[in-house]
Design goal:
- This protein has helices spanning 38-41, 59-68, 90-102, 117-120; strands at 14-15, 27-33, 46-49, 52-54, 79-84, 107-110, 113-114.
- By secondary structure, it is of the alpha/beta class.
- It has one domain: Nucleotidyltransferase, domain 5.
- The strands form two sheets. Strands 4-3-2-5-6 form a five-stranded mixed β-sheet, with helices on one face. The chain has a two-stranded parallel ribbon with strand order 1-7.
- Strand 3 (46-49) and strand 4 (52-54) form a beta hairpin.
């Protein structure tokens, strides 16, 4: 069950080689995309963590909050899942990756949908 309401557009890219996670409790989600309420938040891609929009400068604090929710032995196993709209610009993704490195959150995954053979034809 989803814990937060996604406030950014999410057209997830498709991929042919995917792996499932075994321990979903060690995953924290960051959503990147154009806000669904563009009148209020504009059309530029935004970063959503939980139910709020954050700036790249807030990512280190967010990672530390996510790690503090875990047992001490599991903190280094935190995986950040980037759920990025397929039309999002690479610049914001790169900025997020840089801040995650500074926060020592080095396990990243990029969410994608499976592209089956049937859908290709």
């Amino acid at each position: 069950m989803r814990k937060s309401t996604i406030e950014v557009k999410q057209v997830i890219p498709r991929a042919t080689q995917l792996r499932k996670l075994m321990r979903k409790g060690l995953v924290a989600n960051l959503y990147i995309g154009e806000p669904t309420k563009s009148v209020q938040f504009g059309k530029e891609p935004k970063i959503q963590a939980d139910d709020v929009f954050i700036d790249t400068k807030d990512i280190i604090r967010w990672v530390n909050e996510q790690k503090s929710k875990l047992d001490e032995v599991e903190r280094d196993q935190l995986t950040v899942a980037l759920k990025v709209d397929k039309d999002a610009k690479r610049g914001i993704i790169s900025d997020v990756e840089t801040e995650l490195r500074k926060a020592n959150a080095r396990k990243l995954l990029y969410s994608a949908l499976e592209d089956s053979e049937r859908e290709k034809n």
